Amino acid sequence: MPNRLLVLLLLPFSLPVWADGSDSRNLEIGLAKSLHAVSENRLDVALNEVDSLLKINPNFKLAQLVRGDLLLARSRPISDFGDAPNAPRDRVQDLREEANARLQRAQQQQPVAIPKYLWQLSPQQRYAVVVDTDKSTLYLYENVKGEPRYVADFYISVGKKGADKLAEGDQKTPLGVYFVNAHLSKDKLTDFYGSGAYPISYPNEWDRRLGRDGHGIWLHGTPSDTYSRPPRASNGCVVLANNDLTQLGSHLQIGLTPVIITSKIDWSDEADRAERAELQKSIEQWRSDWASRNTDAYLTHYSGEFSTGSMNLAAFAQQKRLVNSGKTWIKVKLSNVSIFPYPSQPNLVVVNFEQDYDSNNLSNRMHKRQYWMKQNGRWQIVYEGAA
């Protein structure tokens, strides 16, 4: 086997007990047991383990490869993982990468800390998704009285060229804060997408501001003859096994569930919580200054780099001064607030809320999205618009 797999196999072997207890997780742990038995030269035990896996899912190509190696080992020594003669080198390498990713996943512990990207979930958002592209893992968190709680995690595939999508056709998975915006059922898709698909909101407002383009980034399943795909196998989508997608899909809310994609998860700590409290205070001061009709104070919350659509700060300020000059009173109420730090841009946070606005001559309600950035020690708005 390749060195990186041997290193994992020779580590002290202890498989954690996982709260989700899914068939997918049990299959992954079974694979790890089989590969460890190979490393200890207990080939009959390894073959029994892998045969059990294939009874559960005969389309698990990685397990088929391990089984082929084990049968080959009965006739001659094997020197490498996927040692069958004339095996396609690129496909075997893909399966080696999958074995590496799955072994690391099988040995990792259930997360205790909370990802730093979930500063505040709105009461309407029952779940949140965080994707770690480097670990080939999608994490599902439940909103329990305002606090994220780990529910489950799933093996995933991402773009062939990795993460940080820049342009149409670059075969990369985007990094950022997105939302599930549709569900496409199996009967509306070709078999390639498996049990269904959940398009997400790439490109978002920040992507467009940076000139990033492309479309059609989905969470979706695998073809009916494929259990899973290598860690880097898609054209940019996040791909799950069909049963995993079905399990995940039962928790997704169209238009509400955040999907935060990062190349490496950072975890929340005391400094992170202090930053959250500071931003929450800034949001409330912005609301209060607006309601007070103190336009000068209100506009200080907007960065010199602010834009909303085609309007820059100067045009926005002129418009607000004109509008507010006709107000004798203003009331602004915010509800269902969510706050998500942006994974690929330091000091940038996405804020969503329902805004109830009342004044002497206008009343409206809208779902608003803002991007706040900390600049020179102060949180300010760099984008604002309807969500």
Query: Biggest sheet, strands in spatial order?
Result: 13-12-17-16-15-14
Uncertain residue segments: 1-11
CATH-assigned homologous superfamily of the largest domain: L,D-transpeptidase catalytic domain-like
Please count the helical segments: 10
Order of helices and strands: HHHHHEEEEEEEHEEEHEHHEEHEEEE
What's the CATH architecture name of the largest domain? Beta Barrel
Average residue-wise pLDDT: 91
Q: Could you tell me the strand content as a percent range?
A: 25-35%
CATH structural fold name of the largest domain: L,D-transpeptidase catalytic domain-like
Tell me the structural class. Answer: alpha+beta
The CATH first-level class of the largest domain comes to Mainly Beta
- Return Rg in Å: 25 Å
Give a short account of the largest sheet. Answer: 6 strands, mixed
Tell me what the structure shows.
The N terminus is likely disordered. Helix 1 runs parallel beside helix 5, helix 2 crosses helix 5 and helix 3 packs antiparallel against helix 4. With 387 residues, the chain is α+β, with helices and mostly antiparallel strands. It has three domains: 105 residues, no CATH class; 136 residues, Beta Barrel (L,D-transpeptidase catalytic domain-like); 117 residues, Roll (Nuclear Transport Factor 2, Chain: A). Helix content is 32%, strand content 27%. The strands form four sheets. A six-stranded mixed sheet has the order 13-12-17-16-15-14. Strands 3-2-1-11-5 form a five-stranded mixed sheet. Strands 6-7-8-10 form a four-stranded mixed sheet, covered by helices on one side.
